[in-house]
Amino acid sequence: MKDMLFFVNPRSGKEQIRSQLLDILDVFSGAGYLPRVHITQNAEDAKRLAAELGGKTDLIVCSGGDGTLNNVVSGIMGLPRIPRIGYIPSGSTNDFARSLKIPVDPKKAAEAAVSGTGRKIDVGKFGDDQYFVYVAAFGAFTEVSYKTPQDIKNILGHQAYLLESLKALPSIKPRRIAAEWDDGSIEGEFIFGMITNSRSVAGFKTLAPREVSLYDGLFEGLFIRMPRTPADLTDIVTSILLRDEENENAFRFRASRIRVVSEYEIPWVLDGEYGGTIREAVIENLHGVLPLNRSPQG
Fold first, then answer.
1. Which of 3, 28, 205, 295 might form a disulfide with 33, Cβ 3.0–4.6 angstroms?
2. Coil, strand or helix: which one is 63?
3. In contact, 28 and 53? CB cutoff 8 Å
């Protein structure tokens, strides 16, 4: 029998994974794995155990939202040998799963985790010791993802983010930011910025460029300036929705390494989880480091 670590976040999404666990374990056993199951107890739980035990296992599978996946990946990135991982998405938005066409049906996702193959994907390194799978962001609405109570997420799903974002509108403040990357730079007052490696962000495909590769060693960046007039705000929204529309207030770029310096310390979000409040962030693309099992079309 092959060894497996299976992390389960039972509270993610609408907690539907609870009723699927026997079917999932049956898939694992049928594929010749002897799974050690751990029900996550807190945000850092999976990260700690993945770091402690991941180097001695054949496969790690996690079930939860993007934050749960982030914890597992963050735990194994420092290992001498990074084990293959599988992902059973059960969160509210599941942006990463959308990008790689990982099945939303738990049993099919479990089958992909034990039998699927795929190229190694890029992972983002944030500072010295933090990582993200698909997005690092600051500014307007980003705090919503980790401040929205889990109970509200479970009841309303993706709509919970929209409702909490509306509540945050009055508190939006611009940040004085200077950013530089491989072949470019920008400076000014921004209300939002994100570095992504995803075809969907916060459940919206329009936030990401039309052509995104998770294997090219490049991030996609989007910085939004503080609108000066209602017309500026309209132009920004139009640019984001159309994606290809040029707009000086919604600036897009691609890069493998980005350095962002703010006038004051600002909070960052990594894969929907709080990533710390800092003044300077260095973000690097670790090209092709994560072996992820998934269905062939991913």
1. 28
2. strand
3. no
- Interval 123-138: pLDDT, tens: 999 999 999 998 998 8
The pTM of the full predicted model, rounded to 2 decimals, is 0.83
DSSP type of residue 298? -
φ and ψ at residue 204, rounded to 5 degrees: -110, 120
Residue 71, judged by CB atoms within 10 A of its CB (0-12, 13-18, 19+), counts as buried
Could you tell me the end-to-end alpha-carbon distance of the chain, in angstroms, rounded to an integer? 27
Catalytic residue numbers, as ranges: 273
Sequence-distant (6+) residues with CB within 8 A of 229 are none
Question: Token pair for residue 128?
Answer: 């010295």
DSSP letters, 257-286, are EEEEEEEEEEEEEETTEEEEEEEEEEEEEE
Buried b (16+ CB within 10 A) or exposed e, 239-276: bbeeeeeebebbbbbbbbebebebeeebebbbbbbbbe
